[in-house]
User: Which sequence fits this backbone?
């Protein structure tokens, strides 16, 4: 089992750092899945128990100048590691002016992801700063616990408003309640609502648009039979929503959410080389 990768391009390094910073805001620990073509950051808190789930997917070719990995076996050419993304984020903070960053799997008293940062120096020799980040190797028998979540059979799918605008609205609302109602319809309308015994506050967004979903068999999603004016809604933990909005550094080119009424809100943030899915379960 071997893994080594190298980033030379400054823009790629900065982009990778922003992705890791976003992951670190969303998960204290997560699973890093390595394949020949992709990296995945996975959080699988049980939604049924009120936890959020996350699935972030990166094409390695868009970030790394060199990328080599050998999985646990020829027929299972993948590696699954448990890590603390904040540790990786801290290591990359030292790499802002780096000439190169090398990341590899090592064994130093315990399995580690070692980040070696080559920094420019006034002398002819470079300075190397090395960070050893302890990781847990996840055995093959547990890999099925980390499959890609399926897109839920949603009632409404809608594009999100500008995330900064949405964040400022939610930040103000969090002082009024611990939960927020997110509702939307197929007319491109979305509302954020706070309802307590003392106050009722609603922010309306219009003209957002609804993504065209086509299932694998080529048919339209079942939402086509739904009344366009009818609102689908879910009441969710406002802190979990704010965590997603406040931690966002990927600057997605597309952001949308799918609502399964009274069950779950599924967020999808897309950038050219990155896709991030985030699931927040509805409160009873």
Assistant:
């Amino acid at each position: 089992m071997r893994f080594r990768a190298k980033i030379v391009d400054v823009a790629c390094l900065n982009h990778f750092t922003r992705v890791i910073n976003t992951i670190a805001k969303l998960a204290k620990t997560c699973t890093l899945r390595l394949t020949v073509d992709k990296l995945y950051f996975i959080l699988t808190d049980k939604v049924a128990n009120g936890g959020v789930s996350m699935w972030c997917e990166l094409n390695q070719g868009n970030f790394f100048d060199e990328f080599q990995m050998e999985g646990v076996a020829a027929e299972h050419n993948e590696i699954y590691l448990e890590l603390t993304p904040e540790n990786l984020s801290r290591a990359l903070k030292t790499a802002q002016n780096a000439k190169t960053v090398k990341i590899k799997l090592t064994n130093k008293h315990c399995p580690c992801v070692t980040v070696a940062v080559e920094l420019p120096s006034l002398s002819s020799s470079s300075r190397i700063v090395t960070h050893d980040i302890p990781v847990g190797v996840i055995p093959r028998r547990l890999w099925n616990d980390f499959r890609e979540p399926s897109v839920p059979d949603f009632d409404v799918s809608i594009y999100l408003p500008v995330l900064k605008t949405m964040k400022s609205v939610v930040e103000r609302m969090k002082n009024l309640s611990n939960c927020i109602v997110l509702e939307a319809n197929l007319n491109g309308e979305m509302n954020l609502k706070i309802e307590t015994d003392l106050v009722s506050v609603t922010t309306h967004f219009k003209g957002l648009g609804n993504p065209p979903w086509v299932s694998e068999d080529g048919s339209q999603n079942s939402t086509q039979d739904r009344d366009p004016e009818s609102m689908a809604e879910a009441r969710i933990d406002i802190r979990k929503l704010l965590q997603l909005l406040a931690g966002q550094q990927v600057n997605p080119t597309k952001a949308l959410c799918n609502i399964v009424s009274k069950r779950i809100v599924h967020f999808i943030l897309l950038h050219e080389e990155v896709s991030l899915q985030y699931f927040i379960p509805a409160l009873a």
